[in-house]
Amino acid sequence: MKILKGAEVSAKIKEQVTQMMEGLEGPAPKLAIVRVGEKPDDMSYERGAVKKMENFGLRVQTYVFPEQISDSDFKAEFSAINRDPDVSGILLLRPLPKQIAETDIEKMIDPEKDLDGISPANIAKVFAGDKTGFAPCTAEAVIEVLKANEIDITGKNVTIVGRSMVVGRPLSMLMLKENATVTICHTRTRDLETECRRAEILVAAAGKAKMLDGRHVGQDAIVIDVGINVDENGKLCGDVDFPSIEPLASMATPVPGGVGAVTTAVLAKHLVLAGRRQRGN
Ligand code: NDP
């Protein structure tokens, strides 16, 4: 089984980003990471994103607000960041605390700065197959992993486990755009094993440690594991039980070291695209 390493895909995206930055006048585009509270998951994602931006030669600033911030105070702060001409793109760490109306923020964010595809305008573009919008970075990262490894998606049976607005749903639309035949599974799917086993490309995005194993993987399938979970020993793991799929799958992404590393690279690519558009390139 070939291991599809995220670092190799990320290196290819870095080359693209470097090329895209050539001829871009003025300071490097700046990412604003907006975090409310101190959730370990948010902080770990933030560290990864900061490191990646710096590694790609991009600017990044983190804006941290207290967990108890009121809805109106947060909206005022967010609005200022949204309007700041020095900020080319925004990454909002979610979910936000309950007192903040997240859907209002999704509507507020400037679609041109909405690098993670949360605004209605960008969601509509992803669903319409219009590539001028920003798709959620993780969903796009799955496509990047396949393309960087020269895996043809056209006509393939693709099964995606998970239907969230962050991964499963937008990814199903990106897969359709690539001419795959797509099946989306969720907790009400009647026969998950059969749906998964007939996939030529199986994407796990359920957020359940090691829930997919050898019973779910067909011979020579390509397995992309989006899940980030903690196992019974406190170690990071995906949704796929790696050892049990090894005799079956032809290729698979590891966790850690797979899709996660590519997600932040896609974020960097979106930032440069946003910066170029805002400067009229
Ligand atoms: P959500 O919890 O929002 O969605 C999970 C989806 O999986 C739901 O649609 C749910 O179905 C489905 N699901 C859960 N359990 C089962 C099951 N037993 N059988 C079938 N379907 C199931 O999670 P996210 O989409 O936000 O994230 C998914 C995973 O991806 C998480 O582990 C998360 O940490 C990771 N992630 C990784 C990123 C990266 O950069 N690599 C970025 C974002 C997320 P239903 O709709 O019926 O409830």
TrEMBL record:
One of its GO terms (cellular component) is cytosol. Keywords: Amino-acid biosynthesis, Histidine biosynthesis, Hydrolase, Methionine biosynthesis, Multifunctional enzyme, NADP, One-carbon metabolism, Oxidoreductase, Purine biosynthesis. HAMAP family: THF_DHG_CYH. The keyword Amino-acid biosynthesis applies. This is Bifunctional protein FolD. Residues 4-116 form the Tetrahydrofolate dehydrogenase/cyclohydrolase catalytic domain. It catalyses: (6R)-5,10-methylene-5,6,7,8-tetrahydrofolate + NADP(+) = (6R)-5,10-methenyltetrahydrofolate + NADPH; (6R)-5,10-methenyltetrahydrofolate + H2O = (6R)-10-formyltetrahydrofolate + H(+). Gene3D superfamilies: Leucine Dehydrogenase, chain A, domain 1, NAD(P)-binding Rossmann-like Domain. SUPFAM superfamilies: Aminoacid dehydrogenase-like, N-terminal domain, NAD(P)-binding Rossmann-fold domains. Pathway: One-carbon metabolism; tetrahydrofolate interconversion. It comes from the Bacteria. InterPro entries: Aminoacid_DH-like_N_sf, NAD(P)-bd_dom_sf, THF_DH/CycHdrlase, THF_DH/CycHdrlase_cat_dom, THF_DH/CycHdrlase_NAD-bd_dom. The lineage of its organism: Bacteria, Bacillati, Bacillota, Clostridia, Lachnospirales. It comes from Enterocloster bolteae 90A9. One of its GO terms (molecular function) is methylenetetrahydrofolate dehydrogenase (NADP+) activity. Residues 136-277 form the Tetrahydrofolate dehydrogenase/cyclohydrolase NAD(P)-binding domain. CDD domains: NAD_bind_m-THF_DH_Cyclohyd (cd01080). It holds the Pfam family THF_DHG_CYH_C. Belongs to the tetrahydrofolate dehydrogenase/cyclohydrolase family. The keyword Amino-acid biosynthesis applies. GO terms for biological process: L-histidine biosynthetic process; methionine biosynthetic process; purine nucleotide biosynthetic process; tetrahydrofolate interconversion. Homodimer.
